[in-house]
Amino acid sequence: MSQVIPQGTVPHGPASGPASGPAPSALPSALTAGSAGPGGSATPGVPPVARAALRRFAAGAAAVSAAALATLSAAPPAASAQEGDRLTVTVRDAGEGLDGTYEVTCRPGRGSHPDPEGACAAVERNTRWGQDTFAPPQRDAICTMQYGGPATAHVTGTWAGRPVDATYDRRNGCAIDRWDALVPLLPAVGSATPS
């Protein structure tokens, strides 16, 4: 005599052969009773309560993932220690004792620069998320017509994971302000004189 077993049920009893897991009577009834949900579609073996719990879990996991990604993307590079924060500064025509080429490495500040800690602090102070710390003044900037002397500087290296190749001079008010913002990375060369 053959036995017909409806699809989606698990046979049990002596005629079914060896069991491959716990008998349905050992499982909670909420897990074994599949039924149609509010939309009319049924997932065999998954009750509406379990489907709702899975939807809440998936929505919560997505929200946590989005929050974690937003936190990571909002952190500025300068906020974490950058192994490559190393700069070379070459100063010319700034005056006796100020000209030369200096190395500075930050976190902690060290190198041949006369004030490595102060140099690193000056660059940190001018670092803004989404902006180039060493960018030249905007082309359409209105600058005072003053001359700050013949001093020039060239800064190369890496800052916050980005390559640096910037030149500085003191030919007008914008250039003087840009220079002075990085003192003592760049040497203090005195006040500018109007032309």
Let me know the average pLDDT: 75
Helix and strand sequence: HHEEHEEEHE
What is the approximate shape?
Answer: elongated
Cα(first) to Cα(last) distance is: 114 Å
Helical amount: 25-40%
- Please report which band the strand proportion falls in: under 5%, 5-15%, 15-25%, 25-35%, 35-45% or over 45%: 15-25%
* Secondary structure tally: strands: 6
Spatial arrangement of strands, main beta sheet = 2-1-4-5
How many alpha or pi helices?
4
Which class of secondary structure composition applies to the elements?
alpha+beta
Q: List the uncertain runs.
A: 10-37, 71-81
Any idea what the radius of gyration is? 35 Å
Question: Tell me about the biggest sheet?
Answer: 4 strands, antiparallel
What this model shows, in words?
- The protein is an alpha+beta fold.
- The chain is built from four helices and six strands.
- The chain has helices at residues 29-32, 48-74, 116-125, 173-181, and strands at 86-92, 100-105, 146-147, 152-159, 162-168, 193-194.
- The strands form two sheets. It has a four-stranded antiparallel beta sheet with strand order 2-1-4-5, with helices on one face. The chain has a two-stranded antiparallel sheet with strand order 3-6.
- The chain is elongated and about 85 Å long.
- Mean pLDDT is 75; it is low at 10-37 and 71-81.
